[in-house]
Design a protein that fits this description.
Layout: H1 6-11, H2 17-30, H3 35-41, H4 47-59, H5 65-77, H6 81-95, H7 100-106, H8 112-121, H9 129-141, H10 145-158, H11 165-180, H12 185-201, H13 208-213, H14 221-234, H15 240-246, H16 253-265, H17 271-276
Helix pairs in contact: 2-4, 3-4, 4-6, 5-6, 6-8, 8-10, 9-10, 9-11, 9-12, 10-12, 11-12, 12-14, 14-16, 15-16
Length: 290
Amino acid sequence: MCLDVTADIRALGSDDAFVWEPASDRLAALGPAAWPALLRALDREGPAVREAIVGILASGTEADDAVRERLARVARRDPEPDVRAVAVPALRKLAGAASRDVVVAVLDDPSPAVRRKAITACTGLCTDEAALARLVALALGDEPLSNALQAKRVLWSLTADGSDAAVVAKVRAASIAAARDAAPAGAAERRTLLAALLLAEIGDDARLADVARATGTDQPVELRGHAIHALGRLGGAEHVALLAGLQQDAAVGIYAHDALRRMAARGIPAAGEAAARHTGPRAPQPLPRP
């Protein structure tokens, strides 16, 4: 049986949700019967349609070699960043471990949004030395800052939450090596702080002085929050006064109070008293890792 789904495929590019949503639902319901037409359309339709097609393919629970190969091509080569950005998680979902080479390659995509998707797709996947080194480089220098911090999160997850000694050792070695690499003058300080945070993420307290500097008001709020949480996990009595003062900071006070409670739970002198004196906002439960 030959299905003509041309009208529904073209409807995917409509700005009217009452047009494209029913078309998308019909194409998704067809499952594998629609795949050949959808793959052909990836070669000739505009960006909005291509993006919608990738979403339809990703909504399924299965894929054949043709679908996986085409998604890999789209993730690496589609001229539109928005299309590449949806193709990366789609490929990761449908191809599993077989998507690794493409995901690692897309870590070098020129679009920050696409790199962010690849960074996230590396979770549970990018554990060889080359991939870890690339993730470390991104954790120390990618822009925007949210990309770098996401790379830090993924690296921690790849260490099995810090328990995989072999991966932790690889991340530590790559972090120390990357932190020594030359960086533009304006980026050197940020690299130093991010390297300290990455080491703290895997339980290394060798650079807590840099972590403490990252809590400063001259740093972005997101970076400060990560640094304060790291001090709560690893900091000592010498950091209590810093965190006690930060409790009054409207931007990060709730994180500072949480960090002091964490320190008190670890038996750090005076941390509990400093937290108890705080009269401002406080989280009812321990805050999750940033």
